[in-house]
Amino acid sequence: MKLDLRPHPTLTAILLMAICLIPVMAMKDISPSNELRYLSIADEAIENGSAFAFSNHGEPYADKPPLYFWLLMLSRFVFGEHNIFVLNLFSFIPAAVIMVVMDRWLMQVSRQASLKFSDGERFAASMLLGTSAMYLGTAVILRMDMLMTMFIVLSLYTFYKMYRGIGSEKLNGILLPVYIFLALFTKGPVGILMPVLSIFFFLLFSGKLKTAGKYLGLRTWSILTLLCGLWFLGVWIEGGKAYLDNLLFHQTLDRAVDAFHHKKPVWYYFTAIWYVAAPFSVTMIYALFSKAGRTYVTDAGRLFFTGAVVTFVMLSLFSSKLAIYLLPTLPFLAYYTVLSGKNTGTNGWMRFTLAIPAFIFIMVSAAIMLSSLILPHIPQLSIPQDLIPVSRSVFVYLAAAVLMAGSVLSFMYLFGRRRSWTGSVSALSAAFFLAILSLSPLVPKLNSYIGYRNLAGVAKELKEISNVSSYTVVDISRPENMDVFLGEDVRILDRNSISEDGAGLSDTILMIKTSSIDSAPSLSCMLSGLHPVEVGPYTVYIVASR
To answer: pTM, whole model, 2 decimals?
Structure first.
């Protein structure tokens, strides 16, 4: 049976996204900053039999709710180990669901407001969202942000259906608080604040605040209270009052008012949004403030605008800030851009904003193609020597050629005879995805610089053949969660604490950042007689008993 994807533009976009990203998801390592820590927490929870109160190497970890950790633990039970590809699907699948829901929402707008969206516009909308830098990046990493964003989108879409009288009011009235709770249960307070504030201000701006009880009334808050009560009861039984206080106050109010992590100034997101929504950030910001009154003719347009702006302002007022926190705004920014484009068409400003990323990609592609001529003449090149061949790989040039072709085609759609902003977005986005696919064969060669899986693999092999008793780490960032790969804890030392004779550093597998060896003469002297095994930017030694 022949598969015809033409009537399904969003599924076509998701399929293209999957084809181009799955090789990366299957081959890439995980970063030590958060991804590896989440796996270590899940392992510790399984070992301790915990479901609500977590710890990281014995220290209470109340930073995040349990839903995402449950998924990590379930995967470990099913596969017997942490299957990185499967774990990445916990981000990719929610990303795909968001694209499907937003497309259905667009079709609801089409029926309710008598606006006809073509397959090309629907495809461009999906690609506009799918290639947004933070959306694309979060779709292939181990974080709970995309899962939370999915539940936020589902909650606001459910509210929209209630508002417009679409579907069963009773069912939607139950699903709304359930989705809000699941967003909260995935990441924390933003999961409840964003949908509730978006609904409140949407009704306020629409002059229908008196109807708020229909959506945020007794039924909604009763369901939320019941579900939160069950969660907090589980936390109290497992972790006690101290853990519950940490979860409810230290990790919420303290981080919002005077953050102990990721503290940034109030204007931080005004600079972050440009790269969070790249490469089409200029287009999205332009669309947000152009022809706004005409776009407001649709209730969906008003809700998209409200959701994006209210969330941006709310996050800016919080003390703790990270660029990834803006992720829930991207679906609404992208689809508001499509609604705005329906009104403005391919006008001069729209062409100008889309020409910017196309021009940048042409310049980057040209620079990559010329890199084989330029690199040998750059003294003191900062690229590690073992990565120089990677940077000159045929796959890099193939990616540059694909990106160049897509950018030129994007220009043709903008300034050719048949001008189409949707064609420009689709061409540039498709080229961007295909460029990622072209680069995917290089991922295994980069893994030693991304995470610790290769490093830990070499260390385990050396430990087995040498029969030493432990692992020691020197000058490697956040190594405590290597236990995920090693199956045991590592000893962490500072290079300045190691004596010239190496006392206390024996009967161990030593993993050290290579650049640290030359900067510590005593360490360099001690290791001079040992056989080094280099793994990316690290070196591994067998240090026998003294």
So the answer is: 0.92
